[in-house]
Specification:
The chain is an alpha+beta fold. It contains four helices and six strands. The strands form two sheets. A four-stranded antiparallel β-sheet has the order 4-3-6-5, with helices on one face. The mean pLDDT is 80.
Length: 114
Amino acid sequence: MALICQHCGRGIGYGHAVSHAKNRTRRIFKPNIQKLKVLKNGISVRLKLCTSCIQRLKKDKYLGQFRLIQYLQADQTVKEEMAKIVKKPTVESVKVEEEKRGEELKIEDIVGKK
């Protein structure tokens, strides 16, 4: 398995292990890479991400073009959740949006006062 994060590109680092007596020996710094399923354009994809990218993904619910899959209770499935995230416009919603564009905006509608 390649030790490279598919989001930030963090990979193996090289350096020295320094003892108390200042003796230097070569060592490798490996990133903590984990496999994780995320959504990319509404499709479930398996990625290899470093733990700092996973933390950012869990905090913000998205990371660049990737979205976090939240596993729900038994009554809702992951497909229903993906359908909510990736909404496809229906014929009725397109017609309603076109009607809204045709109407003029009034200050009362924006402010909320009558």
